[in-house]
Amino acid sequence: MAERGPTVAPQRLATAIKRELEPALSGRVVGPADPGYAEARAVYNALHDRYPAVIVPCRSASDVAAGVRFAAEHDLDLAIRGGGHSGPGFGTVDDGIVLDLSPLRSVVVDAGERIARAGGGCTVADVDGATHPHGLATTMGTVSSTGIAGLTLGGGFGHLTRKCGLTLDNLRSVEIVTATGEILTADDETNADLFWALRGGGGNFGVATRFDYALHSLSEVIGGPIVFPAEAAPAVLRAYADLMDDAPDDLGGIMGLGQLPPFPFVSAEHHGTPGCIALICWTGDPGDLDDVLAPLRAAAPVLGDGLGPMPYPVLNTLFDELLPPGIKHYWKAAFAHELTDGAIDVHATFMREWASPEGGTFFFPLSGAAARVAPEDTAFGYRDVRLNVVIGGSWSDPSLDDTMTPWVRLYYDALVPHSEIGAYSNFLAADDTDRVPASFGPNYERLRAIKATYDPDNVFHVNHNIPPA
Q1: Which residues of the chain have pLDDT under 50?
Q2: Which of 112, 276, 290, 438 is least surrounded, with the fewest CB atoms within 10 Å of its CB?
Q3: What pLDDT, in 10s, does the model give residues 1-28?
Q4: What is the tens place of the pLDDT at every residue in 27-37?
Q5: For the chain, how big is the Rg over CA atoms in Å?
Q6: Taking each helix axis from N to C terminus, what angle separates 8-21 and 61-73, rounded to the nearest 10 degrees?
Q7: What share of the chain is helix, strand, coil (3-state, %, to 5)?
Q8: Are strands 360-365 and 251-259 parallel, antiparallel or unpaired?
Q9: Do residues 240 and 363 lie in contact, with contact meaning Cβ atoms separated by under 8 Å?
Q10: How far is Cα 25 from Cα 156, in angstroms, rounded to an integer?
């Protein structure tokens, strides 16, 4: 990707924006001529190297409202950045305005009511760090630096999905800034149509500046990876899918295919070779776990077993070292009602070709508590699929810049006959525009109608866009 750098025109635009917008804010905006601009414009995915006219650090919902109104009035592209983890790069934009929510990082826990109130700029680590001392938790993502805003608004898969539902299933209230700059509360009783749309509709309806989550009693889990050889992938995938269909809700498990990290409990000869990793989370009676996992362990020889007791927040950091900020990502995703023999053949073939130690194919189960929510109850309408699959093309080696993206596309094309058209919106690529309607499934037209009510001019369009009806 060619670097263009800031031009004279964006610098002039930045000067004009700062002159008009800063008086309405509690702080300063950052433009191309300001110290810290390079750091302020950076996002998690280094594939997206963009030059906003200004970045607006938002310290309150009022700051957000001022930024939204300004962008709408001047017809400027508006990007919203929570944790900055957007794979397609929706947290930044060329020559427009970026509203940076990272200053909104407070988390207040009401242990008696089992509610966490978290700012829109919080990360998974922020929420876990605030709730864990109370022996409480909720479903969060699997990389601790992930922003909770994008995670929640799109769905929210994690280690507790089968036990507690998706992150959005645990959402009780949202403070949101609409396209007109109005600050609203949305919950089951107030602006209920908007609250429905926010649970799965992504960033199409406003800027969420606060989330209230239901919490669950949870402190320590038994978690970690169980590792299998590459040649056992067909048997392991079948055993994994069957296990996740029928296991107790206390079992969470994410399956990964790719190069094996240098786990200390795996022989060094297998480090960097293709393999299967079942990342387990068990919240039930420790004495029951061996029986529950017996079908998976019996599917193939085990190369290594790293299961052990750990605080729940630690489990949400196990991918952190593998996926640090500043590497490149190109993802393709699919929902699967069935893990067919054809799909298994595709995965088993391509897993041997992973060229990057950071990348991998990951399978998230959609069963247990998450599957017991009706498709029409939230905007996330895919409640009857078996697996959420993402081909996670991630790499740090510059020599892969020209080959990784085409290879991921080739892998996905081979998987298409065995998958749904729709996919988890948080894992869609920037070039998946044609898949957006199918990804919202039967709820798409209702979402368009709500979009027409709250954002008829499509101010919030830097996203997997739902156009107003």
Answers
A1: 1-4, 8
A2: 112
A3: 334 455 545 678 889 899 999 999 999 9
A4: 999 999 999 99
A5: 22
A6: 130
A7: 35, 20, 40
A8: antiparallel
A9: yes
A10: 31
